[in-house]
Amino acid sequence: xxxxxxxxxxxxxxxxxxxxxxxxxxxxxxxxxxxxxxxxxxxxxxxxxxxxxxxxxxxxxxxxxxxxxxxxxxxxxxxxxxxxxxxxxxxxxxxxxxxxxxxxxxxxxxxxxxxxxxxxxxxxxxxxxxxxxxxxxxxxxxxxxxxxxxxxxxxxxxxxxxxxxxxxxxxxxxxxxxxxxxxxxxxxxxxxxxxxxxxxxxxxxxxxxxxxxxxxxxxxxxxxxxxxxxxxxxxxxxxxxxxxxxxxxxxxxxxxxxxxxxxxxxxxxxxxxxxxxxxxxxxxxxxxxxx
Length: 291
Hints:
By secondary structure, this protein is an all-alpha fold. The protein is 68% helix and 0% strand.
């Protein structure tokens, strides 16, 4: 059990958040260099180097997506459409052949495709808010990039298995084969890309965590009170968290709003857009947070 501390507000200066559009190319290159440099500091051998290579690849992939106006959210959204489309096609086939087990499988695929659709639909329409709260409460793992990536990998393989023709007598065999290959490829590719981006963001947050640990020297409550200024009784706001990250990394790390939302989703237990002192302490004394 973590000890509790009495909060006391202190003065400070607010910070301007990064561009919601993502990191600019020079900053991406700096992040890539920082990620690769941390390989030599870790001293964990080949396994850690492999993870660092995945993280470096994630930085490159995210940068490439941003240059063409895409993001991991859009990839997940398109993948959810693919899963639901594949489920509908499979369900029609199951109705035609009276295969109850196959029909149940397609219903399962459609429901989870719909869940990812609600989570990653562009524009964040208001009607999705209550459903997202429900998903975060009961299936929180799907609100993380890594969790959605792992689940999409499973759904992609399940879609291929459910649509793959099992008999050469089926008149639509070629069409089913084409749909199975295309849909499963898109979904699995999005899952792999999402996982790489998740590792990159997680490694970057870990470096910030280590920098704060090194400067604070165990006095984490004081660090929290220094930056949790606007609403100390609720917690540290996103702009205050961004200021803390910048101060402890000599200005190298400042997050865009989209990344701050991903980080807070992983670190805070309640949907209040503020990191409480208890949650901050749990992060400081814990290991790497997989976003």
